[in-house]
Amino acid sequence: QSALTQPASVSGSPGQSITISCTGTSSDVGGYNYVSWYQQHPGKAPKLMIYDVSNRPSGVSNRFSGSKSGNTASLTISGLQAEDEADYYCSSYTSSSTLFYVFGTGTKVTVL
Amino acid sequence: QVQLQQSGPGLVKPSQTLSLTCAISGDSVSSNSAAWNWIRQSPSRGLEWLGRTYYRSKWYNDYAVSVKSRITINPDTSKNQFSLQLNSVTPEDTAVYYCAKTENDAFDIWGQGTMVTVSS
Chain A neighbours among B 69-98 (CB < 8 Å)? Predict the structure, then answer.
């Protein structure tokens, strides 16, 4: 089971919108609506930002949104702010015989 | 609110057993809707799900095949916590280890993380 594929880095200016992709297979991202997204600041634990493809937990800014098309999920951050600079990871339930959850390779978001 | 507090040693010798504990507050390890997971993160392997324990009228465990022969995750209902044991560790097991709760297949609550180094 390979990790889900994300771009290594994405950058944007304050106020802009950016989108991070997460590509898997029909055994994970494409097969289930159990895609979630996590924000991780240096030295901290990941924080859940999106679950079930497009749902936001209570307390997460509505500037964060998620979607999915086929085997690719996406996280969009609108109105980019300095505090959004962090690493972002996607995750999906998988029907792989080797594990139940797979994570993405991670994307470093830089606010210019 | 639910919180997870990890404890355990940060240094383990090669071939020995890595043991960590995750204490739960604000929820129950015997919850019929949650599952309790261990995840690790290293520069070489990224985020890697290791396994979980959960209660649905009886206890269940699921493990990643990559560690299945070496891993045990146990609930402790008397202390409302769960533990990770990873046997026969090598330097490749050096990582930050996290406990995390899943509800609806998303890791919604995470422990603070424990950096574990495998070295003699």
Answer: 98
The alpha carbon of B101 is separated from its chain's Cα centroid by a whole number of angstroms, namely: 10
Distance CA B84, CA B51 (A): 9
Tell me how far apart the alpha carbons of residues B105 and A51 are, in angstroms, rounded to a whole number: 8
pLDDT tens track of chain B, all 120 residues? Answer: 999 999 999 999 999 999 999 999 999 999 999 999 999 999 999 999 999 999 999 999 999 999 999 999 999 999 999 999 999 999 999 999 999 999 888 999 999 999 999 999
On whether any CB of chain B is under 8 Å from the CB of A93, the answer is yes
Residue whose entry in the numeric block shows the structure tokens 């979980």: B52
Coil, helix or strand at residue A82: helix
Q: Which of residues 43-62 of B touch A (CB under 8 A)?
A: 46-49, 52, 62
Give SS3 for B91. helix
Query: What span, in angstroms and rounded, lies between the C-alpha atoms of B116 and B6?
Result: 12
Predicted local confidence at residue B103, as pLDDT? 87
Strand partners, B118: B12
